Amino acid sequence: MQKIRTIPTLALALGLLVSAAVAAAAQDAGEAPTSGYFTGSAGQPAEIQPPTVEEEVPGGRQMEGVRFIDIPVEASDARISGLMSVASNGTGVPRDGGFSNIVSGRFRIVNDAGSWEGVGTSVFAVRDEQPVVDHETVQLIGQGAYEGLHAVLLWDFMGAEPVLHGVISELALASTPEVIAAS
Predict the structure, then answer these.
(1) Is 109 exposed, middle or buried (0-12, 13-18, 19+ CB in 10 A)?
(2) pLDDT digits (tens, 9 = 90+) for 62-117
(3) Spatial distance between the Cα atoms of 180 and 183, rounded to a whole number of angstroms
(4) Pairing verdict, β 163-169 and 114-127
(5) 138, 107 in Cβ contact below 8 A?
(6) Whole-model pTM?
(7) Which of 54, 104, 122, 166 sits 20 to 30 Å CA-CA off 137?
C-alpha cells in the first residue's frame, strides 16, 4: 500500500521540477512564461442535442452523438476562456444499486484569439441515488494564437457548480510509457 501512495508524490515532484525549469528558462530569456496552472468554471450549454443512437447492449446501454453546444467557460487564464462545444459517446452500466458511465468526447473551445481542440474521458457513477464520482479529463492542442501550446483540463462536477483545474504548457504532452511487465 505504501508504494501506491508514493506514485502521486513522485508525479507531483516531477511536475514541479519540470515547471520550475521551464519558468526559470523563460525568465532567463527575458520572456514571460507561457505555461501555467489555471482554474475556472463553466455555465450551461446554449443547446443540448440528444443522442443519435441509444440502444440497450449486453450489460448496459450505449449512447452516441450527444452534443453540448456553446458552453461558456471562464478561466483564470483568459487563453482557455471561451465557448466550448462537446460531442460525446458513452456507455452506462448498472451496478450496486446505481450505475456507472464512461464517456469519450471531442472538445473544442473557441475565443477571439484562437481555439483549443482535443479529446477527453469522463467517469460518472451513482450509488443509492447519490453521485460518488463525476470527473472529466481533457487534453487539448492550441490553434491560432495558441499554436504550439497544449492544455490538460480536469473538470470536477461533484459540487453545485463545475470546477475546472488545468495547466497550459508550451511543451508537448509526454508520450505514454510502455506497460510494465508483471513480475
Answers:
(1) buried
(2) 999 999 999 999 999 999 999 999 999 999 988 878 889 999 999 999 999 999 99
(3) 9
(4) unpaired
(5) yes
(6) 0.77
(7) 54
